[in-house]
Amino acid sequence: MRKPIIFLLVLLFPISLLAQKKVSISGYIKDAGNGETLIGAAVFANETKEGTAANTYGFYSLSLKPGVYTVRFSNMGFKEQTLNLNLLSDTAINIDLQNASTKDLEEVLVTAERADKNVSGTQMGTIGLSTEQIKKLPVVFGESDILKAIQLLPGVQSAGEGQSGFYVRGGGPDQNLVLLDEAVVYNTGHLFGFFSIFNSDAIKNVNLIKGGAPANYGGRLSSVLDVNMKDGNMKKFGGEGGIGLIASRLTLEGPIVKNKGSFMVSGRRTYIDVISKPFLKGNAKGSGYYFYDANLKANYILGKKDRLYLSGYFGKDVFNFNSGSGDFNVKVPWGNATSTLRWNHQFNDKLFMNVSAIYNTYNFQFTGGQKDLYITLKSGIRDWNGKVDFDYYAPFGHHFKYGVNYTYHKFTPSQLSGTSADSMLMPENPFIKYAHESALYLTDEFDLGPSVKINAGIRYSMFNQTGPYTSYTFDGNGNKMDSTVYGSGSLVKTYGGWEPRLGARISLSESSSIKTSISRSMQYVHLVSNNGSTLPTDVWMPSSLIVQPQKAWQYSLGYFQNFLNNALETSVEVYYKDLKNQIEYREGYTPNNIRDPESDLVFGEGQAYGAEFFINKTKGKFTGWIGYTLSWTNRRFAQLNNGDPFPAKYDRRHDLSIVANYEINKKLNVSAVFVYATGNAITLPTGYYFIDGKLIQDYSKINQYRIFPYHRLDLSLNYTPRANSKKRVKGTWAFSIYNVYSRQNPYLLYVSTEGTLQQGTSVKVKQVSIFPIIPSITYNFKF
Predict the structure, then answer these.
(1) What would the DSSP string read from start to end of 121-188?
(2) pLDDT one-digit tens code per residue, 54-64
(3) pLDDT, position 384
């Protein structure tokens, strides 16, 4: 580790004494229509070809030598604004960008010479999606879905039909850091994973980092999905919403004080329980399901240099069953809650600070009973998090980011209680765990000559598990042999390590570049699952005496080329990922609540490598992309598969997505999506025999077989009857067809045995499919 750390520190040390005196232009870039800040908006000086981008809060700072400059401000979907400036001293300029029409975009396309992020930036594997792009895609049941949209990008794979979990470059679903206004989201699915928790109407920006994440992100091995809520309209009151087949939603926003503060509140609820009730007969009668969620955000400008943000999310799924006679009742609620309080402070034209206090929790509960007997099972995770982050735009051409964060975790793997007519069972759960996670980081982005840009960073993270905690040892038959008790607050185990990150971009021309990155990551919190998805019954657990942190080195290399004045973006990226301390359940494991899940885990290593191809048309009436991934993902565990390597469940050789959008006119927009993916790897029985009249199964090696390939075609049409109307309320009809040719894609396979020992037994592998062709219609409105 010493060599990469020393190398990074050398790169991070600026030779400021040799720098010539510069002056800066700084301020905030906003949407002129609603006053919201624009994340990542570009600032570019024509004369020197120097540029920068606005941070998460819309703040920018660019240092230049004193002189006369033509400075351009731009952001995708907005009219470019150009200023002629005579910079003699530090200057503060706030910019309001106007929304651009299709015609305006065409003009920008012909005349603009802006530095394109796809080519000029140092970050690899980073893709941003706007909610407008996401809403144009065909959807199932009329609900736009952020997680479904990112699964159409190269290197990102779906967890399967009807599941919101996703895999990135060979990593498991728990290896993705999902953030909503900086708060960690532990379960991303509604309706058992069919939909994500993200309501597109409440979202401003979505950014996916597939590999080589900057050092300000940590705690996961594979990717970062950074989602930011809308701030709320600073100018006027308005709203939007939609009425769909199974859910409706409404978002309201407006100023608290015009141009100083604003709010946004958004709600969504499904009414599957109401619609399905008349049709539930027989064994299904008495069952019901619904989900709801709410997004809230408010912000207020305290002065020229200070601003407060308060945001929150709350969502819950509820499944229940009532037999009607009281013989049997079940209620299963689960959900997430987050809240984030942030304070922005601008010390001067070069130094920007954000302080955040964050709370997030995820809880699952099962309550079932028959007559006087009731059993309750609970599990969950709860975090309290504090962060301080700085952006420093140094006058000698370096952009520093540095900060520190701390999280206090509480893990509840499983907690069982019960009541009966004459007794109550409420035992203390010895498996509840507590931990402290902390990190500090430093990154530096700077030019190393006219063609080379460097983004170097270093992160040091630490994880401390504390008591109360009881460590058990078991024999080969699962019998408890010994235990060690740690008192409340006592230190159980400490882990920590350096996480260097290095990215470089070499410009070959104004429209092409080569990028490379190397990064090391550590993950202290783990999701252990029997199925590889993000179902509500999955259990999160910390690193401990038994469970060591997951670790990964990732190496990436890519070629990026833009054509047609940046209207067509193309790229080829190759990657290799070396994974250590991977976690699986032991063979033959069955869930139980009387022993710590840690004692049933085994540990191994993995490798993931592949190539990603991307073609993206971003301008004009016809837009869309083609993404293709060729990849391999393997795991090796000494206690599994006789120690031989085996493909991971989510190993997919081929993954193809084709997305097309065409704006016929102002009233009509059509979209199409086609996806193809190699089937998941599975383990199947290979032989059957009888012992004492009982059927015994022999299984193949782990994941030796594949389910059938997955493919489907989706179509949609958006119709706005009064697109040019000046009326305050505007409505759009969204028609979509999911799985146009009704492909029977596999949801799961199972083995069925038929017959008797005397008459002969036949064994068949059967497939379960859940989504045939599904048409849907949604009415969306905005005012």
Answers:
(1) -S-SSEEEE-HHHHHHS--STT---HHHHHTTSTTEEE-STT---EEETT--GGGEEEEETTEE-S--
(2) 999 999 999 99
(3) 97
Contact indicator for 61, 91 with CB cutoff of 8 Å:
no
Q: Can you say whether the dihedral through the CA atoms of 532, 534, 537, 539 is positive or negative? A: positive
Q: Are residues 104 and 248 in the same domain?
A: no
Q: Which two tokens stand for residue 685?
A: 């029985």
Average pLDDT of every residue of the chain: 84
The answer on pLDDT for 546 being more than 50 is: yes
Q: How far apart are the first and last CA of the chain?
A: 56
For residue range 257-282, list pLDDT tens digits in order: 999 999 999 999 988 777 766 665 65
User: Omega before 14 cis (within 30°)?
Assistant: no
Which positions ≥6 away from 262 have C-beta within 8 Å? 35, 231, 232, 233, 234, 253, 254, 255, 256, 298, 299
DSSP string, 453-481: EEEEEEEEEEEEEESSEEEEEE-TTS-EE
- What is the tens place of the pLDDT at every residue in 564-591? 888 899 999 999 999 999 998 887 766 6
Has residue 297 been placed in a domain?
yes
3-class state of residue 105 by DSSP: helix
Phi, psi of 336 (to 5 degrees): -110, 155
Q: What's 640's domain CATH number?
A: 2.40.170.20
Q: With H, G, I as helix, E, B as strand and everything else as coil, classify residue 437.
A: strand
Token pair for 735: 């028609």
Query: Using 50, 70 and 90 to split pLDDT, how confident is the model at 362?
Result: very high
Q: Which amino acid is at 438?
A: S
Choice between 144 and 506, residue whose per-residue pLDDT is larger: 506
* Residues 238 and 201 sit within 8 Å (Cβ to Cβ): no
Instruction: Name every residue whose Cβ is closer than 8 Å to that of residue 237 and which is 6 or more positions away in sequence.
Output: 252, 253, 254, 255
Say yes or no: 425 and 555 in one domain. yes
Task: Report which DSSP code applies to 89.
Answer: S
134: left (phi over 0), alpha (psi -120 to 50) or beta: alpha
Q: Give the amino acid at 289.
A: Y
Residue 432 pLDDT > 70, yes or no? yes
Q: How far apart are CA 720 and CA 732, in angstroms?
A: 4
What pLDDT was estimated at residue 105? Answer: 42
Its pTM stands at 0.89
Q: Which of 311, 197, 319, 187 is nearest to 247 (CA)?
A: 197
Mean pLDDT value of segment 144-159: 86
User: What integer pLDDT is reported at residue 278 of this predicted model?
Assistant: 66
Domain co-membership, 446 together with 302: yes
Is there a domain that residue 106 lies in? yes
**C-alpha 672 chain-centroid distance:** 24
Total structural domains in the chain?
Answer: 2
Query: Strand 176-180 and strand 223-229: pairing?
Result: parallel
Distance of CA 496 to the CA centre of its chain: 25
Q: How far is CA 73 from the centre of its chain?
A: 29
Same structural domain for residues 460 and 584?
yes
Please, which residues have CB within 8 angstroms of residue 346's CB and are 6 or more apart in sequence? 59, 304, 305, 306, 352, 353
Which residue among 115, 131, 164 closes a domain?
115
- DSSP character string of 721-732: TTTT--SS-EEE
Q: Could you tell me if 400 and 256 lie in one domain?
A: yes
The pLDDT confidence band at residue 684, using thresholds 50, 70 and 90, is: confident
> How distant is the alpha carbon of residue 205 from its chain centre?
12
**Can you tell me the mean pLDDT for 710-720?**
92
Cα 499 to Cα 511: distance, rounded to the nearest angstrom: 32
Using the predicted structure, report yes or no on whether residue 103 has a pLDDT greater than 50: no
State phi, psi for 334 to the nearest 5 degrees: -155, 155
